[in-house]
Amino acid sequence: MNNMRLFSNKILFFVFFFSLFPNLEKPCFAQNLGEIKADLSLLEKRYDAEQVQNIYKKIEKVALKQTLPDFFELTESVLELAKKNEDLEGEAQGFLTLAQLLRYEEKIERAEKKAFDALRIAEKNGLKLLEADALHFIGTCKEIKADYAWALEYEGKAAKIYEAFGKRKSMALCYRNMASTYKVQKDYDLAIRFYDQCLRIAEELDDKDLMLGIFNGLGTVHERKKDFPKALSFFKKALDQKDYVSEERHLIVILNNMGDVYLEFDKYDSALYYYNKSLELAYTLKQYRRQGANLLDKARLYKRIGEYEKALELAEQSLQIKEAVRAKDIHEEIYFLFYEVYFAKKDYEKSLSYYKAYTDLKDSILNERSLEHINELKTQYETAEKEEKIEELESEAKQQKIYTSISALVAVLSVLLIFLLYKQFALYKKLSTERQLFYEMEKEKRVVEQRHAQIVTEQLETEKKLEKEKNVRLEIELDLKKKELVWANKELELRDRELVSLAMQMAKKNELLNSLEQKLNALDNQKDLTPSETIRNVKKEIKHYIQKEDDWDNFLLHFEKVHENFFTELKALYTDLTPKDLKMCAYLRLNLSTKEIADLLNQSSRGVETSRYRLRKKLDLDNDTNLTDFLSRF
Question: pLDDT tens-digit profile of 447-467?
Answer without folding.
Answer: 777 877 787 788 788 888 888
